Amino acid sequence: MNTNSHDGDQIVAIDGPAGAGKSSVSRRVATALGFAFLDTGAMYRAATWRALRNGVALDAPEALTDSTRAMCLELTETDDGLRVVVDGEDVTDAIRTPEVTRAIYRLDQIPGVRRRLVELQREFGCRRPTVAEGRDIGTVVFPNARCKVYLDASLACRAGRRARELEARGIPVDLDALMEEIRDRDEKSMTRADSPLRRADDAALVDTTGMSLEEVVTRLVALARERL
Ligand code: DC
Question: Looking at the whole model, is its pTM more than 0.90?
Answer without folding.
Answer: yes
